[in-house]
Amino acid sequence: MDVRVSGVRKEFDRFPALHDVSLEINSGELIALLGPSGSGKTTLLRLIAGLESPTEGKVFFGDEDASLKSVQERNVGFVFQHYALFRHMTVIDNVGFGLKVRPNSSRPSSEEIRRRSSELLDFVQLSGLEKRYPAQLSGGQRQRVALARAMAIEPRILLLDEPFGALDAKVRKELRRWLREIHDKTKHTTVFVTHDQDEALELADRVVVMSQGRIEQIGTPDEVYDKPNSPFVYSFIGESSKIDVRVENGELWLADRRLGLKSDLPDGDASLYFRPHDVALVSDSDACIMGTVVASRRVGATRRVELEIGGASERIEIGISADHPAKEMSGIAFRPQHWRVFPKS
Amino acid sequence: MALDLPQTESSAKVWHPATTESRAARYALIAITLAFLGLFLFMPLVSVFVEAFRKGPAEYFAALLEPDARAAIRLTLLVAATAVPLNLIFGVVAAWTIAKFEFKGKAFLTTLIDLPFSVSPVISGLVYVLLFSSHSVLGPWLKSHGIEVLFAVPGIVLATMFVTFPFVARELIPLMQHQGTTDEEAALSLGANGWQTFWHVTLPNIKWGLLYGVLLCNARAMGEFGAVSVVSGHIRGLTNTMPLHVEILYNEYNFVAAFAVASLLALLALVTLVLKTLLELKYGAELRAASGH
Ligand SMILES: Nc1ncnc2c1ncn2[C@@H]1O[C@H](COP(=O)(O)OP(=O)(O)OP(=O)(O)O)[C@@H](O)[C@H]1O
Ligand SMILES: [Mg+2]
């Protein structure tokens, strides 16, 4: 099922939680909504589900306007952040709930409900736990029950709010891989919310980066990592270093030093962003960035050095090869290999 | 880098919990509490039964089986059987509205629900007299339609409902607020309609709190004196509930009969207490969210 969010704005008591958000989700895609706390991820997910109604804008499921439909009619599988399992129902009754509450005309028989629920529990590798109550399950098991329950209604789209948020690191990793497998098998159109960039980059076909109620960038994991299109995305995804520079006649300057980097921004103050590990050391006679080493530490296979950039009292980090001596107070000259300049905000 | 936490002064000394008292003080406090409970609760309770059985079991049962007493018992049961279910429904609806929706004037509504607790029951009764007496607007109109409210069963039920309506709502509001709305949202997203959601999800989540509230509501409904006294008219065999009957017997110096009927009320209190304790023991965790008590 294609899903299209078109020009959606959402206000809570005049406080805008989403401003003019548009997003197209292709059938069968696995999409991650990634952003810091309060950026509106949950709000967007709930709007798609119909748990919240937009102040402005529309949501389309395929060609039909879903904005006119209630949450029940939309037939979405929603997995809540803390699972929201029904605590007084056994695991199998939880999974079968969506089928049990169907109107008589479309409700399967109770044996059929039982059979389908067990199948789903099998699918999420929980067979044998049918008779347990949610309180008797581990966090990871609850997560899987919640997913099975959402899938039982044969939803048109699966929506997961921080599916791994409440789990420890090891279980997270396992479930992450497992969710990808499930998705590859079932081909459900899936949207999940996360504030963990590794999770988003590893799992999703496309990542939607959000900040302060707006979509900053939509793209494949490679695109958002390699070609961030805003200072926010640069600093939110992966590591980045930032230097305040000046544009003059299409060239970047740091104080009175030419950096040997070009830009088509108009003259004026700007910020240069690059990945710390994506730099090349150069001889200091070239146009380049010069820095003085103030600290250095070994991180895995590389060496991280903290530099004081001449002129500016700012410090930045770069990653260089581990065999570089990088003695304190010694000078280092480098140039970023991939970089972007944004007008100073 | 090593963490150099400042050494606080107290870490050098032996640590004392803030509430530690000397042993003597502790025993003294316990003794005072027990003496108080004994003097003001236990002794009166025992004396009710002692007094009731002073002339032997035969007199005791005779006092309970006598027609006016039977009528009073029947009326009390009838009033409780009407007021409690109605308040149960009202309480659930009110708690649902307050806990699960956002609207203007919510805080005011919450305060309003507590009103019967802060108003003297006598005043509650007087309000009904004002509303339904023959000088009021409503009274004569109802009377012309053959409905007697004042000095009749409907008035007693109304007054009892007014006095007891906060019990269920107060028990449920914090409980429901604590539980939030995600369970309901989950049910709705799975396709359940409003009624199915309430029946299969909300009600099971609140059932122990609800039972607790109903228990307290019932105890008060059966024992209410002040408000009922004002609206009842004290017609023997007709509009006397058990507490009113006790008072009448007592005023007639019929102590054995008065205490016999009173002993039933005392028994009700004891049963309520036991059930309440059982509920708290078994479902304490669920009820604790509703920490209104
Ligand atoms: N029901 C509500 N009433 C008022 N404000 C709300 C409501 N729900 C969300 N908001 C506000 O909208 C903004 C976006 O919230 P949202 O829950 O979508 O953020 P989020 O990206 O999911 O954050 P988190 O990662 O912390 O879950 C926040 O500023 C929040 O305070
Ligand atoms: Mg959220």
UniProtKB/TrEMBL annotation, chain A:
One Pfam family named in its UniProt record: TOBE_3
Domain ABC transporter per the UniProt entry, residue ranges: 3-237
InterPro entries, alphabetized: AAA+_ATPase, ABC_SmlMolc_Importer, ABC_transporter-like_ATP-bd, ABC_transporter-like_CS, Mo/tungstate-bd_C_term_dom, P-loop_NTPase, Sulph_transpt1, TOBE-like
CC annotations in GO: ATP-binding cassette (ABC) transporter complex
Keyword Membrane: yes
GO MF assignments: ABC-type sulfate transporter activity; ATP binding; ATP hydrolysis activity
Keywords: ATP-binding, Cell membrane, Membrane, Nucleotide-binding, Sulfate transport, Translocase, Transport
Record-linked CDD domains: ABC_CysA_sulfate_importer
Family the UniProt entry places it in: Belongs to the ABC transporter superfamily.
This protein's name: Sulfate ABC transporter ATP-binding protein
UniProtKB/TrEMBL annotation, chain B:
Keyword Cell membrane: yes
Cellular compartments per GO CC: plasma membrane
Annotated ranges, domain ABC transmembrane type-1: 73-276
Location relative to the cell: Cell inner membrane
Superkingdom field: Bacteria
Lineage: Bacteria, Pseudomonadati, Pseudomonadota, Alphaproteobacteria, Hyphomicrobiales
InterPro entries documented for this protein: CysW_permease (IPR011866), MetI-like (IPR000515), MetI-like_sf (IPR035906), Sulph_transpt2 (IPR005667)
Membrane topology: Multi-pass membrane protein
Annotated organism of origin: Phyllobacterium brassicacearum
Entry function: Part of the ABC transporter complex CysAWTP (TC 3.A.1.6.1) involved in sulfate/thiosulfate import. Probably responsible for the translocation of the substrate across the membrane.
Keywords attached to this entry: Cell inner membrane, Cell membrane, Membrane, Sulfate transport, Transmembrane, Transmembrane helix, Transport
Membrane-traversing stretches: 27-50, 71-99, 119-142, 149-169, 253-275
Record's protein name: Sulfate transport system permease protein CysW
Complex formation: The complex is composed of two ATP-binding proteins (CysA), two transmembrane proteins (CysT and CysW) and a solute-binding protein (CysP).
Database matches in PANTHER family: SULFATE TRANSPORT SYSTEM PERMEASE PROTEIN (PTHR30406), SULFATE TRANSPORT SYSTEM PERMEASE PROTEIN CYSW (PTHR30406:SF1)
GO molecular function: ABC-type sulfate transporter activity
